[in-house]
Each structure stands twice: as structure tokens, then as C-alpha cells.
Amino acid sequence: MSVRGTVRALPTLLRVGFADSVAYRAEMLVWVLATTMPLVMLALWTTVAQGAPIGRYGEPQFIAYFLATFIVRQLTGSWAFYEMNFEVRNGTLAMRLLRPIHPLWAYAAEGLAAMPMRFLVSLPVAFIALALVGRTAVTHDPWTWALWVVSVAGAWLLTLFVNLVIGSLSLFVESTVKLMDAWLVFYFVLSGYLIPVDLFPHALRVVVDWLPFRYQIGLPVELMTGAHDHRTAVALLARQWAWVGVGAAVTSIAWQRGVRRFAAYGG
Amino acid sequence: MPPRSGPAAHRRARAGTVLRNAAKRLPARSSVVIRVRGLRKHYRVHERPPGIAAALRSVFRRTYTTVAAVDGIDFDIAAGERVGFLGPNGAGKTTTLKVLSGLLHPTSGEVAVGGHEPRRREDAFLKTIMLVLGQKQQLLWDLPPSETFELNRAVYDVPRAQYEATVRELTELLDLGDLVRKPTRTLSLGERMKCELAAALIHRPKVLFLDEPTIGLDVSMQASVRDFVKSYNERYAATLILTSHYMEDVAQLCPRVIVIDKGKLVYDGALEELVARIRPDKRIVLRFARAVDARDLAPFGHVVRHDAGQSVLDVHKDAVNRVVTQALAQLPVSDLTVENPPLEEVMSELFARGRQAAS
Fold first, then answer.
1. Cβ of residue A267 closer than 8 Å to a chain B Cβ
2. CA–CA distance from A251 to each of A76, A164, B47, B123 (Å)?
3. Mean pLDDT to the nearest integer, A33-48
4. What is the pTM of this model?
5. Residue to test with chain B: of A25, A97, A98, A105, most B Cβ within 10 A
6. How confident is the model at residue A103 (pLDDT cuts 50, 70, 90)?
7. In a domain, A228, yes or no
8. Are the C-beta atoms of A151 and A219 separated by less than 8 Å?
9. A241 lies in a domain?
10. What is the distance of C-alpha B206 from the center of its chain?
11. With contacts defined as CB-CB under 8 Å, which chain B residues touch A5?
12. Among A174, A179, A259, A263, which is least packed by CB within 10 angstroms?
């Protein structure tokens, strides 16, 4: 489908995707519960920090950091991989391929369509965070907020591309659940999701700076909590968007080669 | 197996001729919508014997075999035709439909549908075709079918007025009523298939591939799906290829059949002609006013089935008039019907002979 056609279809895709995302109330509740790990880490780290600050993090900083992590996670999450892997294995990817809209656009639209629900979850948390730790816990600089918006968009795209690349690999090896599990292990440890990246040993941090994981969640959280000046923020954003570019290129290659091999398992 | 004489052996010999002379029905070039030449689709399949040792070995060293799902077939289909695509399980029917709809890339050969090369999956191509897979669904599981209709309207860029007219028409033809407003997951199999068909036709495709559209449906639902498919074909002059294990679907819908077995084309022509060639017999069903001994029926033809009140005979078509006259004169017949042999039997005989000829 042409870009114009896709844009024309987008409102309907988003509306139907939203309806689909709220179809199961019980599933919604489970989904919310499944993303509360930062709140668990919040409790853990604030207890550890009661004795003395760890790095630049005292109790209020940990509270701000992990509430920000929770919010950013809601805004940047993508579950396209699970959908793709399932559809490849049972052959229903065929139904997407028959439609005159690129399946990757459709996955992206479905991810975006779930955003309003995520806002519903994350906005109250944002207000609670402000009430708990005060307005000083987040940056007051409008330019940093503008960069934050760009970083959230980059983090969402990067996470989406990771999902689409690993999902596309299902077209080669039938199931890539284990590969996704392995990615998630690195993601949880190296992205700043469980441990702020600036608490890593220096040598590891140098490596982490060049890996994609931090740009999936850590960078927006750091910007939100005012951890960087403008120059550093822009430099980190440049690395994030370089990874977005790499993600887009690898997604395109993996999809195009994979779809040629598609053989509708079980069909 | 030693050679056998009798009607069955005679029929096998005739079938060999049919297999060798598979009629090619090629429509006039100008009206051709689907053109297939030398189509091959070969899969590389991983093979592993059972057992833990074999499982461990397969981690380090895998053995593959190549399966010729479709092995060099040719056919043309004209605009508006209804064609039955027949073959035993694993014959290559679904693979061919997937190649025609652009889901699979052929290993070799030429395929054109409506002037497009399906493997490119261009928008203009996708907007003119639809593949309905009886065992796969496009309906959104947790939402009412009306949401999938709306999604397809947007994706296929169907003008609002045309969309509303199409939905009205499909709702009436398929008797959908309130079904479209209930979540798909709450619908019965038959209701879901009707909604699947409606969702597939929102953009009024000119070429329709139906793979087992009536699978699992009860007899009345099968009939209503058949009626609908036929009326869609007639109303929009849509070209239609159907695969089904229910021979009644094929008999009711498809004047022409293409038969493939082990990836090769074994027949392409009129359904009636196929039946006449494979089984030039007629089936005479006799109901009796009183019990008749099976031995008394032997002179009339081959006794397929016999019980006290009813017998079924296979009789060569040229002998039907004589046998009917004699039966009415000599037996206590209360009712008599003459029909073609069941298509299921024709097909299983065709495939059995094909296998025998190959061995």
C-alpha cells in the first residue's frame, strides 16, 4: 500500500486496534501487573539507599528514577514479536500478507493503538510521582522535555524494530521465543530498567553506551530525571537514533528475506 | 499384485488412458485471468527419526529432503469460471492456491493472475484477489466481525458508499443479521465462516481462491455457503477456484475440475467428462416391494450393496435402458432411480489407478 493509502487507513487501524486492546478486561489487568517491575525495584533500591546514597541516588532520586522507568516502559513497550511469532507458527500471517498494507505497518499501528490504555495507566503514576517526590524530582527545563519526547519516540521505535527483527527471524527458524528471552535478559540488565546505568562499573558502562539496550528505556528516564546537560543529551540522542536507523535497516532486510521463505506452517 | 479381470480391472485399464490423455482446457487467450506454466514449488524438509539419540544428532547434523509439492503444472482459467481443484491430501492444492495468491514464491515456472505476477504482491493485485482458508481466519477474534469489515474497508480503500452497499448485500445474502455485532469468539463455526466470507468480499475481489471453505460445517450450512459463492460468482463475474474434500461442493459449484496428484496435473476438463471416463457406469438404486435374493440381481449388473428391501447396482451406461426395462419386468420393484456414481468414488478410483500406473 502506498504511504498515502497507509496514512488514510491509519485512523481506522488505530481505532480498531484500540478496541482490540481493551477487549479483555482481565488481560488488561494482568498486563498492568506485568509491567510493575520498576515499582518492585523502587522498593528494593530505596531500602538499600536508606543507609547512605548510592552514587547520585538517595531515596528521592531512586523513587523518581523508577517511577519514571515505569512511565517510560508504558510508553515504549512493544509486543509485536509475540504476535508475529504466533502468526508465523500457525500460518495466520498469511491473512496479513493478503492485505494491501505492509504487515510491519500494521504491527506498528497495533502497538500505537494500545498507547491510550498505557496513558491511562501511566498518567496517574506520573501524578503520584509528583506528589511523592515533589516537582524537583523531574527536570524543569523545557528543552530537556523536548529532547525527552524525541527520546521516547526513538525508544519506542527501537523496541518495535527489535521485536520486528526477532519476529522476522521466526520466518527462518520457526520459533524465536528463546532468542527473545535472551534479548530480554540483556534488556532488563543493561537498559537501566532494573539498575540505573550510571551505577555500573566504568568499564561496563563504556560498553553499555554503545549497545542499544540503554536507548530503549534508560535514556528517556535519564532525561526525565534531569541527569544530562543539553550537549550530552543530544550526543546520546544521536546514538539512539543511529540505533533506530540500524534497527530499521535490519528489520527491512530480515523481513524481505524471511517473507520469501514463509511457508505458512500447518497450512 | 497379479492382474485381475472383471469390472474393476476393466475400469483401471480405462483410467490409465484418462491419465495419459489428461484433457487440457485452455480458454481463449483474451479471456484468461489465471495463467500457469511449468509451476514448481519444492520444499526443503528437515527429517529426523524418533528417539533421543536422533534428536541430539539433529542438533549437530541435520538431514534434509526435497519435497515436490507442485511439480510442473500448466493451466489457464478464464474470467468468471468456477473451477474445482481436486486431489488427495498432500497433492499440492493448497500450495498452488498460495502461489496464485502471492503467499508462496514458486521454485520455478510462470504464474500470472489478472496480469500480475503474484509473488510481487502489488497493491493492485491484492485488491483484486482474495484467498479464503477454511482453517485460518482473518476475523479479529475478540471483536465483532463488523470491526474486521471496517478494517478491510480502510485497508482496501473502499469508498464509504460502496462499502455500505456491499455490507448490506452480504448481510442479506449470507443472512448475517445480528451476527456481525457479536464478538467473533462467541460465534459458531458456521456463523464464523459466513462472516469470514463477508470480510473477504468487502473489496469485491474479481478472483476468489477458496480453500476448504465448508470444512467442519453441517450439511445445511455447507449448502448455504455454496449458494452464496455461486451467487457472488454470477453477480460479479468473479473467477473462482475451489478446493474441498466435500465432493458435493465441487459437484454443485464447478463445471470444470483440475485434478492434481503428487504435485502433477492428472486431469483438466469438464467434471461430467471426468466422471464418464473414470466410471462410465450409472448407479441404479432399486427398492423392492418384497425381499429379493442377491443371486437374482447378478445378471443385471455389478451389485454394490444389497439388503432385503434395497439394492444398488452399477451398470454400464449403454446398458441402462435394457437393465431398467428388465428389472421392472422381472423384479418386484417399488421404486427405481438412476444416478451418477458418487464423486468420492470416482476420485478415489482415479487416484488409486494413478498410483497403480506409477508403480
1. yes
2. 18, 6, 30, 21
3. 76
4. 0.80
5. A98
6. very high
7. yes
8. yes
9. yes
10. 19
11. 123, 157
12. A174
Closest by CA to B337, choosing from B289, B286, B275, is B286
Residue A264 to residue B98, Cβ atoms within 8 A = yes
CATH number of B281-339: 3.30.70
Extents of the domains making up chain B: 7-49+56-128+205-276, 281-339
Do B140 and A91 make contact, defined as CB atoms within 8 angstroms?
Answer: no
- Cβ <8 Å between A23 and B183: yes
Contact at CB, A91 and B143, closer than 8 angstroms: no
Q: Which residues contact B173 (CB under 8 A, 6 or more apart)?
A: B228, B231, B232
Read off the pLDDT of residues A68-102 as tens digits, 9 standing for 90 and up: 898 898 889 888 999 999 888 888 888 899 999 99
Tell me the residue range of the domain where A166 lies: 3-261
Q: Compute the average pLDDT of residues A126-136.
A: 72
Please judge whether B98 and A267 are an interchain contact, meaning their C-beta atoms are less than 8 angstroms apart: yes
| Contact predicate A198/A53, CB 8 Å | no
Residues of B in contact with A16 (CB under 8 A): 140, 143, 147, 150-151
Q: Which of residues 120 through 149 in chain B touch A, CB cutoff 8 A?
A: 121, 123, 126-127, 129-131, 133, 135-138, 140, 142-143, 147
Amino acid at A233: A
Residue A36 lies in a domain: yes
**B183 interface with A at CB cutoff 8 Å:** yes
Mean pLDDT of A54-77: 86
| B56 interfaces chain A, CB cutoff of 8 Å | no
DSSP assignment string, B167-223: HHHHHHHTT-GGGGGS-GGGS-HHHHHHHHHHHHTTT--SEEEEESTTTT--HHHHH
Residue A29 has pLDDT above 80, yes or no: no
pLDDT for res B195? 92
Instruction: Retrieve residue A237's grid coordinates.
Output: 540522542
From the list A13, A24, A100, which residue is nearest B156 (CB)?
Answer: A100
Q: How far is B156 from chain A (nearest CA, A)?
A: 6
Q: Please state the domain count of chain A.
A: 1
Which one-letter DSSP state was computed for residue B31? G
Q: How far apart are CA A204 and CA A210, in angstroms?
A: 10
CB of A135 within 8 A of CB of A193? no
CATH topology of domain B7-49+56-128+205-276: Rossmann fold (3.40.50)
In a domain, A114, yes or no: yes
pLDDT of residue A134: 67
Positions in chain B whose pLDDT score sits under 70: 1-30, 308, 358-359
Q: From residue B226, how far is each of A25, B79, B341 by CA, in Å?
A: 38, 19, 21
Which whole-number Å values give the CA distances from B49 to A129, A174, B54, B58, B64, in the listed order?
59, 19, 6, 9, 12
Nearest Cβ partner for A94 among B43, B103, B157: B103
What pLDDT score was predicted for residue A248? 97
Locate the chain A residue with the closest alpha carbon to B143.
Answer: A20
Would the ipTM clear 0.85, i.e. be above it?
A: no
Q: Does B184 touch chain A (CB under 8 A)?
A: no
- Exposure string over B153-184, b if 16+ CB within 10 A, otherwise e: bbbbbbeeeebeebbeebbebbebeebbebeb
As a whole number, mean pLDDT of residues A48-72 equals 83
